[in-house]
Amino acid sequence: MKTSIATVSISGEFPDKLAAIAKAGFTGVEIFENDFLTFDASPREVAAMVRDHGLEITLFQPFRDFEGMPEPHRARAFERAKRKFDVMGELGTDLMLICSNVSPISLGGIDRAAKDFRQLGELAAEHGVRVGYEALAWGRHVNDHRDAWEIVRRADHPSIGLILDSFHTLSRKIDPNTIRSIPGDKIFIVQLADAPMIDMDLLYWSRHFRNMPGEGDLPVVDFMSAVAATGYDGPLSLEIFNDQFRGGSARAIAEDGHRSLVYLMDQVVRQEPDIRTDDHVMPNRVRAEGVEFLEFTTDETQQPELEAILSTLGFKKAARHRNRSVDLFTQAGIRIVVNTDVRGETFASASYTVHGTNAYAYGMKVDDAKAAVERARLLGASTFSEPRLDGEVSVPAIQGVGNSVIYFLDDSEDLRSIWKNEFIPLTCDDIGIDAGLKRVDHLAQTTRYDEMLTWLLFYTSIFETRRSPMVDVVDPGGLIRSQAIEALTQPGFRLTMNGADNRKTFAGKFLAEGFGTSIQHIAFATDDIFATARMLADRGFQPLPISRNYYDDLEARLGITPEFSDALRASGILYDRDDNGEYFQIYSRTFGEGFFFEIIERRGAYAGYGAMNAPFRIAAQRRLSRPEGIPTDQADG
Hints:
Strand content: 15-25%
CATH topology of the largest domain: TIM Barrel
Number of helices: 23
CATH class of the largest domain: Alpha Beta
Helix content: 25-40%
CATH architecture of the largest domain: Alpha-Beta Barrel
């Protein structure tokens, strides 16, 4: 697969863009004219730079307002094209994009446009170049790829072909299957972009909100399947206009782009089994069955506080690692590893040095651990490994959000027996006195908002998961955007991704003061929230105190009885319900830089995460974290 990306898609100076594009694994680059014009180097010098990075220039673009122009503008358009062809010769590229005319003085008519392109084809042939015609979704006379193809067909010139762009087709809700009848050799290049579904002006939507395939809501897989059915075997190129990307890391955006193309074609090949490809066939998306264990790193001074919190939650210290300063805490199907081995050159040690006590790793139960790490690697994830001591199993792993580690465990003999072979059981005085916690319901990771799309694509491309709609959570310090990622079948892996814009929000403060650590809270599930609340109270657990006003509002908003409201309030339980079921939540108080636990019960088919309750939880957390006597606006500054 030949992969390409337009220089306009990423931030930085022109040389930095080329370096990021090459490092991400692309084979080609579209030169956006403004990037070329603002860079102080000759076309031949630019061509040499591109070659030095191992890239080819797949396209020079854009050329505007060409077809259907009245004289003298028509003659001027041909003169402009001739000059661009000369530049292309020096750049070493043979393809230029012409987008459909938007000029108010342009004249319509397919035959008129075809005549212009036939004449331009003769000029292009003299210069040894080709021209691709693209229908802009907001073109004055041509805004549909079917009309653009008819113009190219009637022009009937080997130097004139069609350029398809997924955004221009899908934003206008044109059936992508209409592409299947176009000869593949007349499609000169395919540009790809996704976008969130927003009802707005097409030009503004395109210029500001495009994103990588798989990061939005458009049916890009269907579009690409139709293209593949034509026999097209040229470059797949990304053209992304996005305000957020323009201010982001060129390296990260380029890596996202390459991952999105690899994932897109993986989906297309599975959807269109007759399509032949020479690319490596990667393993299936990983079936994420749930969280097998959670791992904290801490040191001996902070270990007692962490263990005390775990004890109040009903966890018991069940075993100690044979070789390392690592303890295993358990309750029902939940395993928590506390790693105090922070003196050596281990990743746990490095994570503690940077972030302090934090949940830096988790193990995911999957159907095939080796296949999981192989798929992740092919999608550009960084694999993770550390030296093992005698008798220790090397667990397949990758690096995730905030330099966290995701381990993969399956039912193979080596991985299944880790807990028995590597940990020595301990006698425990409170065996059987737990709090009714059964399993990990979900993890919540916090990241900067401008990295959120990166990690959503990371999870959905590697794992067999789906994204829920994005939710805006109101914090007194700003807005948090939250989106859940869930395994296709439940119970299974669940994770909420929270994007913070600034450190004034509770999530943003956690991110800033934890220096980028990612897991901000862990939610455990119980089958009886009221019984669990009583057992937690018996163990000295202090829930997050919630204002009485919240419970008074619950009675009015949801029509619950005062007795039910009083029972919720007595245990610090938050409540939500929808047409499918009910959701109960208890939050711990925070420790460290803002980490906390959540205990939940789902009744019926409730599938959400209590988003309606988030502002009340945040307000309570901010009240407790505010130094006494300091106003809110000063305490968080």
